[in-house]
Write a structure and sequence with these properties.
InterPro entries: GHMP_kinase_C_sf, Mev_decarb, Mev_diP_decarb, MVD-like_N, Mvd1_C, Ribosomal_Su5_D2-typ_SF, Ribsml_uS5_D2-typ_fold_subgr
Distance between the termini: 12 Å
Keywords: ATP-binding, Cholesterol biosynthesis, Cholesterol metabolism, Lipid biosynthesis, Lipid metabolism, Lyase, Nucleotide-binding, Steroid biosynthesis, Steroid metabolism, Sterol biosynthesis, Sterol metabolism
Enzyme class: lyase
Strand order of the largest sheet: 8-7-9-6-1-16
Helix content: 25-40%
Organism: Gryllus longicercus
Bound molecules: ligand DP6
Strand content: 15-25%
Number of strands: 16
Largest sheet: 6 strands, mixed
GO molecular function: ATP binding; diphosphomevalonate decarboxylase activity
Oligomer: single chain
């Protein structure tokens, strides 16, 4: 028997992927850009065992056995085996089956890109097990589109590509995590309930019905991708933050333009948007950016120097005493109680307690890693 264990990161898009031009190959309508989050705080962990004694491939997700017949899963396995047949035919005999165990160290289906980390981890682990080398982001992409971005650390671009086969629809690194070490991400978990409409179904509906989607994909995103790459390379937080917020807002506008509409943000999400704009306005400059995926949870981007003030602000706005799960994982940080000179300018009262479940403070991190000693 042989066994390999890897961990893989979550990624948060600052230019969103929304809409496919090919459902089977998972080819997107537009390029997207993300930051990879530090695996210490959020990650998927996958072990794959291969043995001549296993009679079939099997998979357990967070301790529960799931069907191996899932087409996306089957496809990832098939493709790694296909590459292995050419590259490393002697590492794992073709007749051997695998047992896969995967878990997340954060709630699944919390809209926290758990499928991205999960599929990236699966493909990274299989590649290690079978001794496959080279870029396997195009295989991870076929598990879940956004998973291809979790195959690399730092700041990552997923190119939509032009080939019918999808061979050029891959992820590349814009810059490593060490390029902008001051950047912080504060995840505000509003709800860890499973989302109502999955991203897959939501974007299918948008492709079928939204008029705004094509305008976004073809007229807006190409320009934004260029500006975002420049902002990242120049570590221009103001530009980075404004594009991030505008892109999140436009993605949700497309979701609302879908018929029937896909509503992912809730009242708490909208209060967070309002709070951040008021906070930035009170400071006369953009200090924090928000972005929301296909769910109500917010990811805030800021520089390290702003963390105590922003965490203090969140504490003030969402009184923590009633937080359902008052876990502040990774949040060993100072918090400044906001001064009245600031709260006065916010023109709002603290919101009802219990609206936020917990906070996770993290930074930009590296790509998948093999755990040694396995
Ligand atoms: C809103 O990658 O989960 O998070 O390719 O169908 O598996 P599938 O969808 P998925 O969609 C992610 C959408 C998003 C934006 C993003 O991460 O770019």
């Amino acid at each position: 028997m042989t066994r390999v264990t890897c961990i893989a990161p979550v990624n948060i898009a600052v230019i969103k992927y929304w809409g496919k031009r090919n459902e089977t190959l998972i080819l997107p309508l537009n390029d997207s850009i993300s930051t990879t989050l530090c695996t210490h705080d959020l990650c998927a962990k996958t072990s794959v065992m291969a043995s001549p004694e296993f009679t079939e491939d099997r998979i357990w997700l967070n301790g529960r056995e799931e069907s191996i017949k899932n087409p996306r899963l089957k496809n990832c396995l098939l493709q790694i085996r296909r590459v292995a047949r050419d590259q490393t035919p002697n590492v794992i005999p073709e007749s051997w089956h695998v047992h896969i165990c995967s878990e997340n160290n954060f709630p699944t289906a919390a809209g926290l890109a758990s499928s991205a980390a999960g599929y990236a981890c699966l493909v990274a682990t299989l590649a290690q097990l079978y001794g496959v080398s080279g870029d396997v982001s195009a295989i991870a992409r076929q598990g879940s589109g956004s998973a291809c971005r979790s195959m690399l650390g730092g700041f990552v671009r997923w190119h939509k590509g032009v080939e019918e086969s999808g061979s050029d629809s891959i992820a590349t690194q814009i810059a490593p995590a060490s390029h902008w070490p001051e950047l912080r991400i504060l995840v505000l978990v509003v709800s860890d309930h499973k989302k109502k409409t999955s991203s897959t179904i939501g974007m299918q509906n948008s492709v079928a019905t939204s008029e705004l989607l094509n305008y976004r994909a073809h007229q807006v995103v190409p320009g934004r991708v260029k500006k975002m790459e420049k902002a990242i390379m120049e570590k221009d937080f103001t530009q980075f933050a404004e594009i991030t917020m505008r892109d999140s807002n436009q993605f949700h506008a497309v979701a609302l333009d879908t018929y029937p509409p896909a509503v992912y943000m809730n009242d708490t999400s909208h209060s967070i948007v309002n709070l951040i704009h008021k906070f930035n306005a009170a400071h006369g400059q953009i200090k924090v950016a928000y972005t929301f995926d296909a769910g109500p949870n917010a990811c805030l981007y800021m520089l390290e120097s702003e963390v105590p003030e922003v965490v203090g602000l969140i504490d003030w706005a969402f009184p923590a005493k009633d937080m359902k799960i008052n876990v502040l994982r990774g949040l060993q940080t100072e918090r400044n109680v906001p001064k009245e000179s600031l709260t006065g300018k916010l023109e709002m009262q603290p919101l009802s307690a219990g609206m936020l479940q917990y906070l996770i403070l993290t930074k930009v991190g590296d790509g998948p890693q093999k755990l040694e000693g396995d």
